[in-house]
Amino acid sequence: MSETFDDKEPDDVYEKEPVNSACGLHCLKIKDLSVRAGEDTIIENINMHIHCGRLTAIIGRNGAGKTTLIKAILGEIKHGGSIEFTDLKNRTLEDLKVGYVPQHFNIDKNTPVSVYDMFAGYISRMPVFFKKSKKVYDYIKKQLSMFDAQDLIDKRVCDLSGGEVQRVLLAVAITPIPNLLLLDEPVSGIDRNGMELFYKNIRMLKEKFDLAIIMVSHDFDFVSKYADNVILLDKTILKEGSFEEVSGSEDFLKIFGRDYNEYTL
Amino acid sequence: MNTLYEIMEKVLPFSWMEYNFMKNALLAVILITPLFGILGTMIVNNRMAFFSDALGHSALTGIALGAVLGIADTDISMIIYAIIFAVLLNYIKRKKTLSTDTLISVFSSFSMAIGLVFLSKGGNFSKYSSLLLGDILSISAQEIRLLGIVFILTLLYWFFFFNKLNSVALNTSLARSKSIKADLVEASFCILIAVIVMLSIKWVGILIINALLTLPAAASRNISSNMREYHLFSVLVSVFSGITGLILSFYLGTATGPTVVIIAALMFFITMILGNIKNR
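Above: the input entities. Below: the structure tokens describing the complete assembly.
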């Protein structure tokens, strides 16, 4: 269940709670996951072990089923197989808190939703059309400041640049601190500087809160630098391991046509 | 009720206020317009204008069904049919097949045509034609009370569920990741619209109820940058158009509903110009 924000003092989740509380030495086991649409199989035989404090990157060509896998983990689509979440406190899948940063956050131009409106909508019981709660406002500013986005709080979401939206969504995803952070190609449409900042933030989150992170990415530069574990997906898991192992494999060559080293300029 | 009338006469000592039917109409307008202003915010944000339009048209079918099934109070059959229709449309919309708007158009036309065929059989349609334009001047005190209850219930729903509704509207996957039951929230909103549209359609009219739902919110969108402004201006435009339209229609002898819509549309153009000036 998501935490709701009543008008009490906000929990300073990352000052009072010890660093390991979000992790609790948990892991996510994905067993034999499959997604079918009618006669077609989109993904099958997916077996993954996601530990906290590790960043797992999922790479693959377009149409390999990466977003489908994310949607299955989110519980948005029906899937075969099972997803188990265990931790020392013996909580179950329902207790799994997921932070999700979608690939596209489509919002119409001129939509009168400010960053505060969107953020508060997820964490506060006070309806955002009514009045701004100072406590919530200050709390949101604090969360946004983790990613240097505090000045965006009163801007309309539709007026933000791609990089600004991603920083805001990241702040939303970690409020409250989740067990699992799911990022679906989060840097599409962001400039080089924005990307560096974003990756640094991800690493900071991973180290500070010991989150388990699953990230779908096309950016091999990033994957080689930041991922602890890489999974090459094409309907099923073709190869898993470190980036060197995966990028050197035959399957990688078959899919991407050439050696990784040719990608770097 | 009579004390309310006396207060109204004292506060607004105009000649048109002498008539009870005008007092009733004014009360109805004061209840309906802010309601539509509020609902309209999410209808326009979610691009659901087609939806409320289809619902409006389904009113005749609901009545026809009631008549065919021998239900005495066709209001009830109208509401039940509208709820079923709304849930069905929402289901189609969620399936996100490529031909969503075509499919909805087909269902909507089919539904409306069935209603029209039934009701016009034997050449008796003229008794339903008041539904097309609406007849706010014939509202009774009892019906005003019902509107009052609906108004309060809607405000409660809005207060407790707006944040979830807005989150689902922005991005459904993200809302689900925050443990919001997106399907329930969407379905409940559709049902709410269905009920309110059916309860007000007799007064506002099938032909323009959708305009009243969408124009004030659309006008507000031109000049708002956050949810508080959006709601405030939408309600202001809606109430202003409603009251001005009512009074104008009294003096000009025109149907109230369309008169209100013209004013609301003018407000939209004004705010559009204002919005452009602000953005430059």
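Note for the figure: The first helix of chain A runs from residue 66 to 74.
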